[in-house]
Amino acid sequence: MIVINRHLGNRYVSFALTCLVFFGILHAIFNNIERTVPTLSPFLFPTLTVFLLVFHLFIAIFMIMKYWCDKQRVFLLAIAFAFVGSALLMAGTLSCFPTWLNPYSLHPNNYNDAMIYFMMRNIMMASLFTLSTVLFTLRHSALTRPMYGFIVGLLLIFTALMIILAWLYSSHSALLSLDLVNNDTRQSTILWTQVINIILILFWVSTLITMLVITRLRNLFWLSGCFLCVCYIITLSTLMTTDYVGGFVWYRARFFEAIATLVIIFTLLQDVFSLYRQSHLKYQQSYQNSIRDALTRLYNRSYFYESLSHSLSTTTGSKPVSVIVSDLDRFKRINDTYGHLQGDKVLQFVANLLMDSVRPQDIAARIGGEEFVLLLPNTSSEAAKQVAERIRILLASFDRETTHGELPEPITISMGVYTTTSSAVTAEECVERADKAMYEAKETGRNRVVVFS
């Protein structure tokens, strides 16, 4: 059982099983369509081609945008060229069906030219996918400008060459010709069924193996690339079962390719949402770091004053705002006796106690070395005093044993409370008055709460 689980957990086995299930479901769906629908519209094949063309253009644009965001990932350009070239060759395929564009056209459909475009498209995409996988190994290398120019030039020349060759061979050159399909009978020639089709399958198998070995299916992006390779292998293998062009098998092949391309698009969209989520989390983390004290994780001075000013703008007699300024008693002796590291632990302990002692809508901040402040919206003077007393008594009850060494000895705190019901009072005045009350607590014996009067 352990051996089975290890094999099932292997990413290659999981990938193979996923492909088997996915294409098995597609095969069953199309078999059901074939049994229930006696014939398919001749316009379905060009329509699927149009959808596929749009999908490939979308993927190409997406790859270019990703490359533009990170110029080190030059392998994305190879994939972009593959899909751009594929879209252009599918445009050539559409030109082979003049009756689809114009039902009254006198020119017959040219299935041989469509097959040539299909062949060139497979050769070009398999080659560029392989090149992209090789370029993936250079993603951490510092490529020079001439090297970038060479790679881009190579991709451009190869893609243009494949498009030009496809155009010349498809009845546009008297010197170059290739007979893959008999346009009168729609029967494939031996050259297609026994030579070219097999070569194309081997092309894609080689591309798939290269991709599996180099990328090791390390992320969803390359997983989708391998999935597309499997799609083309299955598509070409399906076409080997018939010599007739335009039948159900050809619709099945184009249907498989369209669905597989949609899967890649969904994968790319998932990548976008994943990047957005990561960016959002990083932004939130960066924002929290900007408004919080690094040591205690309480809010910092600037955020406290900003929040207090906002609360004061809506203060009324029925919505009082209370401020509690507190300072640890004889904290300098803690640093001098036990060291600053122990002093930091004391500050963190007190910060946690303050956060646990207030409501979610309250603000606990550190505004000085051992000086803390609380903002309590909609809190009367008496209620604020009760909060301060509860914190003071709770802190004084802890010692070294009860805190497992976080406090080296009992610690006390002096606290000053100020409450306002007027929006005319500034944030600085609130803190200043609470601070005066806190100093009065210090001067009258420490470890006490004083309300400003």
Number of strands: 7
Secondary structure category: alpha+beta
CATH class of the largest domain: Mainly Alpha
Order of helices and strands: HHHHHHHEEHHHHEHHEEHEHE
Enumerate the strands of the largest sheet in spatial order, edge to edge or round the barrel.
4-5-3-6-7
Question: Unreliable stretches, pLDDT < 50, 5 or more residues?
Answer: 1-5
Protein name: diguanylate cyclase
Transmembrane segments: 12-30, 42-62, 74-94, 114-136, 148-170, 190-213, 220-240, 255-276
GO molecular function: diguanylate cyclase activity; GTP binding
EC number: 2.7.7.65
Structure description:
The chain has 15 helices and seven strands. With 453 residues, it is of the alpha+beta class. The protein folds into two domains: 10-286, Rhopdopsin 7-helix transmembrane proteins (Up-down Bundle), CATH 1.20.1070; 301-451, Reverse transcriptase/Diguanylate cyclase domain (Alpha-Beta Plaits, 2-Layer Sandwich). It has a five-stranded mixed beta sheet, sandwiched between helices. Strands 1-2 form a two-stranded antiparallel sheet. Strand 4 and strand 5 (371-377) form a beta hairpin. Its EC number is 2.7.7.65. It catalyses: 2 GTP = 3',3'-c-di-GMP + 2 diphosphate. One of its GO terms (biological process) is negative regulation of bacterial-type flagellum-dependent cell motility. Residues 319-453 form the GGDEF domain.
Secondary structure: elements and pairs:
Layout: H1 2-9, H2 11-36, H3 44-69, H4 75-95, H5 98-101, H6 111-136, H7 145-169, E1 181-182, E2 187-188, H8 190-215, H9 220-239, H10 248-291, H11 301-312, E3 321-328, H12 331-338, H13 340-357, E4 363-366, E5 371-377, H14 381-396, E6 413-420, H15 427-443, E7 449-451
Parallel strand pairs: 6-7
Antiparallel strand pairs: 1-2, 3-5, 3-6, 4-5
Helix pairs in contact: 3-4, 3-10, 4-6, 4-7, 6-7, 6-8, 8-9, 9-10, 12-13, 13-14
